[in-house]
Amino acid sequence: MAELPITLCRMDTPEGAKYSVACLPHEQLFARGLAPEAIIGVLLRPLEPGEAITPAVFARNRVFVDFMHGVIARRGPKLPGLIAEAQCQGDGWVYIIDQRTRTPQGAVPPEDIIGAFEVRGGQVVPDSYCPSPSHGALGDNRV
Length: 143
Known about the structure:
- 22% of the residues lie in helices and 29% in strands.
- It is built from three helices and nine strands; from the N terminus they run ββαββααβββββ.
- It has helices at residues 26-32, 62-75, 80-89, and strands at residues 7-13, 16-22, 39-43, 58-60, 92-97, 113-120, 123-124, 130-131, 141-142.
């Protein structure tokens, strides 16, 4: 799986500097501009030197989250891995897990479950994607 490029963008506004976290390479931001769907979220305050982005300093962008779930809902049922898992499952649900989870082969915390597809007879049920209400990996704050 390709690594998602994460870029921190400083934007000067009348209220002062704002920092957006985007999922586009830096070069692409300047070539095409920053679409709302590419803004994962914003920092609630500037980071201290060496400080990591954590849910405590991050507010997710609802436009990005909705866009992400839409892509998963549309493209997920066509992915070979999901199709294979559905065939193994038979009936029930196949869960979409945040790849950053610490326990991918064990008990996955609810906040690392992004959503799920229903499976019947080894087939993904069309239009069955359900985003997880507990998915907090993008932060609990919203903008």
